[in-house]
Amino acid sequence: MNSQSLIHNTLLQQKKLQGIFPIIYSFFNKNNSLDIKLMKEQIQLVQTIGSSGNACLGLATEVNKLSFNEKKQIIEMVAEQCGGKIPIAVTIQGHSVSEQIKLINVAKGNKASWIILQPFLKSKNTTEEECFKFYNKIIPFTKGTTVGIQNAIEYMGVGLTTKNIIKLYKSFPNFRVIKGESSSVFIGNEIKQFPKNLYVFNGRGGAEIIDNFRVGCKGIIPAPDCADKFVSIYHHVLKKDFNKAYGEYQKVLPAIVFIMQSINTLVCYGKRVFAYRIGVRSVYDRKPYLSPTNFGIKKSREIAKKLGNLNV
User: Fold this and answer.
1) Count: domains in the chain
2) Model confidence, pTM
3) Mean of the pLDDT values across residues 170-175?
4) Closest to 14 measured CA to CA, from 166, 162, 175
5) Which of 62, 120, 271, 273 has CA 20 to 30 A from 307's CA?
6) Mean pLDDT score of the chain, rounded to an integer?
7) pLDDT tens digits, residue range 66-125?
8) Could you tell me if residue 190 is inside a domain?
9) Residue 263, domain member (yes or no)
């Protein structure tokens, strides 16, 4: 495939990257192995609720606790279950550069619509310049697929400034999407400085979802616990019916506040809220993890009940 064909392919892929892309949780069995059956049901449900796409292997997926083979298995599972019906986004996180390249190849081989690169953190003191050099080194391996970065300074401690993001945009024709984790005010200001065809998704569990779209975000990547509510809100936003959108948002806001106090609470309690909504009673955690309290479990069940049941 020549360079013009690759650019055309990237543009076609990018146009699909809008809306709600729930990122799946990792569910484990009592023996600490992946619960394949439950994860397949989760992926199917993401489609059933009308999601725009499906994402995997981010912070909510506890990617840092997964082996290479488990990451590969999840990518293949998402691709198989989605079957080309909706686009898939794959976050790339590895313990070495070579592992990241291998995972990129797995994602490309499974026709990922969007590859999201996490910074390679050599230590807690990794600098922005080191991140920038890493992205320049790794992005060429994503050729032929739309690529972006997870720019989550608030959660990961390091990321890129707008200046360096634009440098990557100018250097790589397939670098066209950003996955942020910022307030609507901050991310809206960044969007003003970006080229129009550099798409921005936000996360933060759906917090400020409507305002994110108002300031120019193309989509949201939440966990699946409240994703059906976000799909409904997104449809109201598309119709510019903001009264209904904000009405739906007010109903789900208490759940967002409870779940999104940190990544640890998201993984501990957000996963439980989702599990209780689909009728799963027992959730097994993989170390290291935040131990759920009796009140936390009670609160999770209350929130799940208010949000309503979900069925595959």
Assistant:
1) 1
2) 0.94
3) 96
4) 175
5) 62
6) 93
7) 999 999 999 999 999 999 999 999 999 988 899 999 999 999 999 999 999 988 776 678
8) yes
9) no
pLDDT band at 1 (very low <50, low <70, confident <90, very high): low
Residue 221's alpha-carbon distances to 52, 54, 213, 227, 261, in angstroms, are: 10, 9, 12, 9, 17
127 has pLDDT over 60: yes
By the 8 A CB rule, do 225 and 273 touch? yes
Question: What b/e sequence results for 78-94 when a residue is b if at least 16 CB atoms lie within 10 Å of its CB, and e otherwise?
Answer: bbebbeeebbbbbbbbb
H helices present in the chain, as ranges: 3-15, 36-48, 68-82, 97-109, 128-138, 153-156, 162-171, 184-193, 209-214, 227-238, 242-259, 263-265, 271-277, 294-307
Provide the b/e sequence for 11-30 (b: ≥16 CB within 10 Å). Answer: eebbeebbbbbbbbbbbbee
Lowest mean pLDDT among 101-105, 150-154, 171-175: 150-154
Cα gap 17→29, rounded to integer Å: 33
Handedness of CA 155, 178, 224, 231 (dihedral sign): positive
Residue 224 contacts residue 46 (beta carbons within 8 Å): yes
Q: Phi, psi (5° rounding) for residue 114?
A: -150, 125
**238 C-beta neighbours (distance < 10 Å), count:** 12
- Report residue 106 as tokens: 């797995």
**Does any domain span residue 66?**
yes
Domain, as residue range, for 116: 3-242
CATH of the domain at 222: 3.20.20.70
Judged by DSSP in three states, 280 sits in coil
Residue 172 counted as domain residue: yes
Q: What is the Cα gyration radius of the chain?
A: 18
